[in-house]
Task: structure prediction
Amino acid sequence: MLKIALIGYGQMGKLIEQIAQNNDCEIVAIIDPLLGNEITTKTITDADVCIEFSTPDAAFGNIKKLIELGKNVVSGTTGWYDKLDKIKLMVEKKGTGFIYGSNFSIGMNLFFSIIKSTAKLMNYAEEYDLYGLEMHHKKKKDSPSGTAKVLSEIILKNIDRKTLAKYEKLNRKIEKNEFHFASVRSGYIPGMHSISFDSESDTIELKHTARNRNGLAMGTIKAAKWINDKTGFYNFTNKLNEIIG
Ligand SMILES: NC(=O)c1ccc[n+]([C@@H]2O[C@H](COP(=O)([O-])OP(=O)(O)OC[C@H]3O[C@@H](n4cnc5c(N)ncnc54)[C@H](O)[C@@H]3O)[C@@H](O)[C@H]2O)c1
Result:
């Protein structure tokens, strides 16, 4: 049975705790300032793998401590990826295992593949302009979502006429090379991402809607099992076939 330490006991931490037992995992530590504890050699000593779902401000510091303590980490928190390179160096130096993903849902990762194939096709259909839209619950702290950034990267890589993603509002006409991706925050929406292709005659919309967060928690548990006996720095989407296989 895999022994897991949960770093961050918010919505995701609680959900992972709920499904862990039925998936051959045991939660041996829960770390959250709201519980009045922190990461130390003692608090996480029993864990094989640590799963980090905290806040964009806290993630880097937490992950750094976990690597220093020689722990393998699944990183779910988004909104801190400007420091990802530093984590890669630390992981390689320390010889631990690290896997991160802006979206651990298997369905969303299939959606990434669908968008990639569609973008390759739409690259030749120049009469279509395109845009993205994402919607999340009112408690989400970062915007755009990490998933929106991944989708934008896929679009920019595969559609030559788009070279720049714009997430903020525009007080001017949009440039031809700009790809507009808007974010909405409201209510309890677990997560919606869409990419639309718009011509004078019609609109093609590709949309992923999460029904709940269970898919995210299941993907995270699979990633934890996969990284348990590994060293190195990995991205969930790139390793999807091995993880779900
Ligand atoms: N990668 C994915 O698939 C995925 C899925 C869902 C959410 N997320 C991201 O994961 C993060 C957490 O999501 P959530 O919905 O659980 O958020 P949440 O706000 O419900 O919970 C965050 C928790 O982190 C705790 N926290 C704050 N500082 C901390 C610290 N220093 N150490 C440990 N815990 C700390 C808070 O007290 C809170 O309990 C967000 O960045 C969110 O965008 C990613």
In short: The chain has a mean pLDDT of 96. The first helix runs from residue 11 to 20. Residues 106-209 form a domain with the Dihydrodipicolinate Reductase; domain 2 fold (CATH 3.30.360.10). DSSP finds seven helices and eleven strands in the chain.
